[in-house]
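Changelog-linked ticket: zinc ion example.
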Amino acid sequence: MFKPVYHLRTRHRLLAFLLALATGALNRPAPLESGELGTVAAARNSITADQLKWHIDALADDTFEGRGAGTPGGRAAGLYLLKEFQKLNLVGAGNDGQFFQDFHRGYRNILGMIHGSDPELKNEIILIGAHYDHVGYGSSRTSNGPLGRIHNGADDNASGTAGLLELAKAFRSLPTPTRRSILFALWDGEEQGLLGSKHWVETPTLDIKRVKLVYNLDMIGRLQPAGLEIYGTRTAQGLRRLICHNNTLENLSLLFNWKIQNNSDHYPFFTHGIPFLMPHTGLHPDYHRPSDDSHKINFPGVEQIGRLSFDVIYQLAELDELANFRSAARQESPRSQQRRERPLKPLPARLGVMWNRHDTTNGLKIIRINSRSPARRSALRIGDRLISINGQAIDSTHFFQAAVLAAPQQTTLRVLRDGAEQPLDVSVTLAGKPVRLGISWRMDPSEPGTVILIMVRPGSPAATAGLKLRDRIYKINHQPFHDSDELLSLVTSSPLPIQLLVERNGKLSSVELPDLLNQSAEQVKSAPHDAADAAE
Ligand SMILES: [Zn+2]
């Protein structure tokens, strides 16, 4: 929809803006903190909320009229970005060594490169991509309305474009370039159906076989407390683990989504058999509306995503070897994720009694015996006070729960009973096999050397330490393991306490499984309990 009056006004503003750019009148922050020039950490920390804001404000300004592909606003945004690539001294990687790759009706991709420093690995490329176009004034096909007003697309995708510029600056400021080459690709025509990235995959400006992974930045401006969505980790082995190991500085909650959709520029590469990663801060009510404006951007959030991305890409560009495309990802979905992470059915309690956890001075007083439980089949009665198990005194709930889990099937409980002068010994046949740590796990073919917890027995050392279903175990006693058998032998041969490196929602933590059977009640630092009653 064309609005001549509006249009003229914005043309003037565009001219003024470009003039200001050319004369350096806009107050742009310095690129690097002085004093820490030339280190990897300095390069990473050169990505700042201030500079991201500067780029997002500029790209999402009305002067670019919503950056519609092939429109004057879109072309002006392309020129602005060309200047940025030139300022960073990137090497042109478009047609004939230029930065542009023109296609369709005045559409243009912008491609710049940093050559790798390793004689062999520099032939391999990590591609960082972002689309810089948006939907202009909107059309019934591209906009959620209202139509006819400028859709600035601050989140979609000035945020990803700004992130790419900051990453390019950070990688340019490294003392030595990374071993692999890095290609920066700003796509046009994404909003018309991924036109720019499709065009490049069909007619690449360099050998597409060199591209080992695509890091797609699309909508990273609205980070929520719930966390950052990450797509694509299933497209090569070990990507989730690699991201989590690099998340220690930012410590963001990461929501790994197995869904792979034809909704952004990673997709043409994915169908071509190239692994990808895509951070994404989620859809929102301003999505594809004129209200997707700069003041709604979470700038510190973009900084966090930018820095995490730097760390992840730096590692990908430096590793000796990168995993190949994992074609099984084509068949995976959130349903496969549910199946892979599905918990085991809880096992019945080994004993089947409940006691009052606030009244433990003189044994544990039984307040309930479950029907059809081992306790029901024994001579135990409600009101009995449990004072020892197989000769070991019961001094706490934690101890008793762990002791019942670990006890042999034929077990003797000593109880005090009202009316009886002497303590009574009651023998019970406990259900199931003895349990030591209280965890069961499942492997994940996409993440070798990692397991998913699918059971955490209540009362076990694992539960007491706070482990939860779907936690990932990465290391045991600081040692990595390769498969389930190796983990099992480590678990069974290591004495308690055991240190685990655990990942939950992208965050790593070290967790100690306590030796509940040989620890006093005060030593047990347990996960909080709400219930007044405890059971086993
Ligand atoms: Zn979009």
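Closing comment: Example verified and attached. The longest strand covers residues 107-114. Residues 1-12, 22-36, 527-531 have pLDDT under 50 and may be disordered.
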